[in-house]
Amino acid sequence: MEELACVRCMSSKFRNPNLVFSFNVCGHTMCANCIEVAFMKGSGPCPKCLIPLRRNGFKLQQFEDASVDVEVETRKKILQDFNKTEEDFESLDDYNDYLIEIEDIIYNLVRNINVVETKERIDQYKRENKEIIMRNRMKSKREEQALDDLIEEEKMHSQYKRDEVLRDEAEQRTKKLRVDSELIDSLARSNSDARDIVNTYTHKKEEIPVPKPKPISKPINFTKFSTGVKFNQSSISISIKEGPLFKYEPVSHQLNGPSCPDITQLDSLGYMKYIRRESSQELAGGFLIKTSCLHYVQECVSALYERKTGKV
């Protein structure tokens, strides 16, 4: 990988580790100082490829290779419109073809391959699926909002629980300080034995209950995704319909030649005479050399009597 450097001043991280690099749609990296100088008017050409760029189009580079950042940003932008789910298709094959189409579009845009045709495909897709795109966007926003609400609610309950524990601990410390104060007063005013007084108040301090975590009185109201799965569930139960039991039917091979011997006849007919035996590892894996020998014999006799007719 080439050294990370600015395409305008050629400064690199090796020479100046404090440099901050940004990238644009063309994928070429520039430092913050060169962006300020070259794009004072808000727009201008890329110093390397001369593609028209805007100053507000530069984004902070996260990866060492700027092409990775370009692909990430392109993927985010494309998936905002290509947001269909498997529920929007009649079959799984159609959905897989749709995913392949998305990857082809992203690849073309990142690699600058047929960019004009690719953008026309994107515009045509937006026109034909305008309602579905808006519906899925709203659906995604609702799910994100529900998840944010759940996280915020959990934070509030966690904070309430921490505050309750701190209150209990402060109350326990106050009780212990009160016992210590009473102990000092008793030692100062009483004529009894000091050891007995100290033992008495030591037992009082030990009898102070230790605060225990209390259950949250208000249960968390878990919301659901649009699929019906709750946020606190790992999966949704699926009802499985049992079908007919599997029935084995032997495979019949249509041979255009003499009948093939059975696998039990291979030894008696001499087919196994010049074939090696299985090793212990092969036997452990379920491999039988007779099966391979039978397949070989079937291939030999499968088209032995076949005649070419010249017809296609």
Features:
312 residues; mainly alpha; 3-stranded antiparallel beta sheet; two-stranded antiparallel ribbon; 8 helices; cyclin-dependent protein serine/threonine kinase activator activity; MAT1/Tfb3; zinc; metal-binding
Give the overall shape, derived from the CA principal axes: extended
Largest sheet features? 3 strands, antiparallel
| Content-based structural category | mainly alpha
What portion of residues is helical?
40-55%
Number of strands: 5
Spatial order of strands in the largest sheet = 2-1-5
Uncertain regions spanning at least 5 consecutive residues: 216-220
Helix run count = 8
For the terminal residues, how far apart are their CA atoms? 55 Å
**Mind telling me the C-alpha Rg?**
39 Å
Mean pLDDT comes to 80
Protein name: RING-type domain-containing protein
GO cellular component, one term: transcription factor TFIIH holo complex
InterPro entries: MAT1/Tfb3 (IPR004575), MAT1_CAK-anch (IPR057657), MAT1_centre (IPR015877), Znf_RING (IPR001841), Znf_RING/FYVE/PHD (IPR013083), Znf_RING_CS (IPR017907)
Subcellular location: Nucleus
Account of the 3D structure:
This protein has 312 residues and is mostly helical. It is 47% helix and 4% strand. The protein contains eight helices and five strands. The protein has a three-stranded antiparallel β-sheet. A two-stranded antiparallel sheet has the order 3-4. A hairpin with a 5-residue loop joins strand 1 (21-23) and strand 2. Helix 2 packs across helix 3 (92-111) and helix 5 (130-189) packs antiparallel against helix 6 (194-206). The longest helix has 60 residues, at 130-189. The two termini are 55 Å apart. 5% of the residues are buried.
